[in-house]
Design goal:
Elements (H helix, E strand, L loop, with lengths): L4 H22 L6 H8 L13 H23 L4 H17 L5 H6 L7 H27 L8 H22 L3 H14 L9 H4 L1
Helix pairs in contact: 1-2, 1-3, 3-6, 4-6, 4-7, 4-8, 6-7, 7-8
Length: 203
């Protein structure tokens, strides 16, 4: 008897969700199809009916995360630039509260051991975040809220702080690390940019 499509779809989603939990807690190399199967009460070979390989599951996990992240970004765009950045750091604080890492941060730690397809997808998600943060910075400059000379470079720095801060927060069992990082970063953005002296002025 064929398995109903609704049941197949539900199982695939359960596998995806459990895979995400294990990735965020243990990293990509820290779990197997067998681990997922045991947690869900399934037989490990049955997972291949839904995902051809662990690499395929990893790509599906990142695509699912991208959809949720972009929806979150679109919703957050309704706020003022400074508030957007606060929410960005708080987003990762929520992962740290559960002693997890976001998928991008988890995979960055294993970058050299990942299949090329996962490395590329992880980098793509990193760039999406950098672009979103850069846009918030440019919007902040436009309304006089921020003093930023190079929004693209500053965005890369802020994203690095947010992603790296998760590891520190987990190590210290302190999810508030992210909030403090965010507040300090935003305060720095509000400081006037020092004007470089011209050669004539400095002579």
């Amino acid at each position: 008897m064929d398995t109903p499509k609704a049941s197949v779809g539900a199982t695939k989603t359960r596998v995806l969700r459990e895979g995400a939990r294990l990735l965020q807690r243990h990293g990509f190399g820290g779990f197997s199809f067998g681990d997922i199967a045991r947690r869900l009460g399934l037989k490990a070979p049955s997972l291949y009916d839904h995902y051809a390989s662990k690499e395929a599951l990893g790509l599906a996990l990142l695509e699912d995360y991208r959809g949720r992240l972009e929806a979150w970004m679109a919703k957050s765009d309704a706020h003022a630039p400074a508030r957007r950045l606060e929410l960005y750091f708080d987003l990762f604080g929520a992962f740290a509260k559960d002693r997890d890492l976001c998928p991008v941060s988890a995979l960055c730690a294993e970058h050299l051991a990942l299949p090329a397809s996962l490395r590329a997808k992880t980098l793509e998600l990193l760039r999406i975040q950098e672009a979103w943060v850069a846009r918030a910075l440019r919007d902040g400059v436009a309304v006089g809220a921020f003093s930023v000379r190079d929004p693209a470079t500053r965005a890369r720095e802020l994203v690095a702080q947010a992603l790296g801060g998760q590891a520190v927060a987990r190590l210290q069992s302190d999810p508030h690390v992210l909030r403090r990082l965010g507040r300090n970063a935003i305060a720095a953005l509000r400081r006037p940019v020092r004007r470089r002296a011209s050669p004539k002025e400095s002579s």
